[in-house]
Amino acid sequence: MSKLVLIRHGQSEWNLSNQFTGWVDVNLSDKGVEEAKKAGRLIKEAGLEFDQAYTSVLTRAIKTLHFALEESGQLWVPETKTWRLNERHYGALQGLNKAETAEKYGDEQVHIWRRSYDVLPPVLADDSEFSQANDRRYANLDPHIVPKAENLKVTLDRVMPFWEDHIAPDLLAGKNVIIAAHGNSLRALTKYIENISDEDIMDVEMKTGEPVVYTFDDKLNVVSKEKLD
């Protein structure tokens, strides 16, 4: 049976300052570094060994993966980075303080933007300092593919081709896989893996730096789920 470990990146500098981050590339905080290292120690204690690693193209997830693999003695494991595992794009909310945004638009509206499955936040303008329109990471993508705002539904649509083409085939081949990514890209995967409803996914949280371990049978049915802490 194959295993899949999901880790939301450790606390980032903007998690700490309570800002909407999305596709903005911010670093881990000191606490986030320690969370990532702790994840690696928990993985080692659990005896988990990986054949393949995946992460996004954002620094906080990449570093989390590297710290976790290093602490578990597996930094050599083959690794693939993809924009499809990026955090949900928060549109024009990116860079804004969450509390100040709630004061401006109201708690209910901000809650809808943050947690609803299919409501888009305001679209980000290409000339915003937080836009990815001219980011070299995405230069080889059709410009129409690079989002200017996403909800969880759009994020799931973006993640699924990578699951189908890479992650699922690895698991079906009996490989153990680790993914270090983001709260919403991992929530999207969780929704698919566990067949969670559009309503119930709103209440699903991913803790920073907490490894979530799935065990699958040879038909990719979930046999067990465990959180390491």
UniProtKB/TrEMBL annotation:
GO terms for biological process: gluconeogenesis; glycolytic process. The keyword Isomerase applies. Its EC number is 5.4.2.11. The keyword Signal does not apply. The record marks 182 as: Transition state stabilizer. Belongs to the phosphoglycerate mutase family. BPG-dependent PGAM subfamily. HAMAP family: PGAM_GpmA. Catalyzes the interconversion of 2-phosphoglycerate and 3-phosphoglycerate. PANTHER family: PHOSPHOGLYCERATE MUTASE. This is 2,3-bisphosphoglycerate-dependent phosphoglycerate mutase.
